[in-house]
Amino acid sequence: MSIHTTRFAIVGGGLSGLYAAYRLEQQGCTDYVLLEAREVPGGRILSTGRFDLGPTWFWPDLQPALDRLVRELDLERFAQHEAGDMMAERSRSEGPLRMRGYVNAPASMRLAGGMAALTEALRMRLEASRIVTGQAVRRLRRQGTLVELDSEDARGKLTTRQAGHVLLAAPPRLLAATLAFDPALPDALARAWQATPTWMAPHAKYLAVYDTPFWREQGLSGAARSAVGPLGEIHDACAPGGSAALFGFFALPAQVRGRFSEEELRGHCRAQLARLFGAQAATPQADFIKDWAVDGYTATAADLDGMGGHAEAPEAVAGAGPWAGCMTGIGSEWSPVFPGYLAGAIDAVDRALQPATAAAPAQVASARSTRPVT
Asked: At what angle do helices 64-72 and 342-359 cross, to 10 degrees?
């Protein structure tokens, strides 16, 4: 029996994992494997049709590295629609108010085809055989100059691989909760990872798809704010050349949402959109809910009571001990400038990849096929 050995193992196939693989291949390194627990890469980037159920916006003026990647991949971007008045609900005792809308500066930008166009474009440029889906990494073991990774498929079958360097392309808190380290991580590092909130983990989004953007015909932008709920913040989700849509972020905490069935939540959302935008909003072509708090590949129990904000980035590497020099965190939460944002994934990879490349044991580069089990 033998164990496949690579120079790099990437744990996680969201934006940071796919971008890390893309950067490695740009540098001429194809000796890697990317392991993704889900059946489809993308991570927290999730689109249905052309509409986003995960991250939606980026800001080119503030996030030039992400914008360069979007242009490099020849993706079409467009500004979030904000023209027109907005609606507001202040209390249950008074009806919705119509007020002048506002325009964000710098402009919030979206991608044609949804943000999944970004991860799909990266995936299409990678060697397909190096991306392994349906493999949840459960354990890392330090073995001399290498790291052994145990991963598990949906049927519980274990597979072991070895790598010279591991790139952790998943949220720190999720990894601390679901990944066993042998030997254990340094206490201070483990605590820091556990204390780092995962962006979007407590949140849920609702999306309603329509034939036409009828609210625009009324001079409305599609934006709304509500202290009544269940949605606290609503936006126009239309895409050029596509169907019309509205989406909103739930204001209800995760544990409160859990008391209702999905159909009950949809009914409350439809009723709210009808209050804000008229009776036509109550009958979408289709509607969807994505509750990230019940996504086991995103959220942990520690996320359910939090706000899931953009927290200060923890250390991405172990400064000393057995895990020093063989493992680097590259998930978005490890970015010190854009933690949790899409741009954070790009920043974390760009910061980490060169040190990781230098740190990978040179002898692994020649062990490209298999290594005997010891």
From this structure: 90
Count Cβ atoms below 10 Å from residue 136 Cβ, excluding itself: 18
Within 10 A of 256 (CB to CB), how many other CB atoms are there? 12
* Cα separation values, 328 from 113, 182, 194, 268, 325, Å: 32, 16, 16, 43, 8
* Nearest-angstrom CA–CA distance, 87 and 234: 9
- What's the rounded Cα separation, in Å, for the pair 372 and 329? 28
Q: What is the pLDDT of residues 248-287, one digit of tens each?
A: 999 999 999 999 999 999 999 999 999 999 999 999 999 9
- The interaxial angle of helices 342-359 and 15-26, nearest 10 deg, is 50
Residues 6+ apart with CB under 8 A from 263: none
Give the torsion sign (CA, 254, 258, 263, 265): negative
Residue where the block lists tokens 């503030």: 62
- The model carries a pTM of 0.92
259: CB partners within 8 A, 6+ apart: none
324: number of CA atoms within 13 Å, CB side?
5
Spatial neighbors of 41 by CB under 8 A, at least 6 apart, are 13, 14, 17, 18, 34, 119, 123, 131, 133
In residues, how long is the chain?
374
Beta strand pairing call for 136-143 and 180-182: parallel
Cβ–Cβ under 8 Å, residues 85 and 96: no
> How buried is residue 232: exposed, middle or buried, by Cβ count under 10 Å (0-12/13-18/19+)?
middle
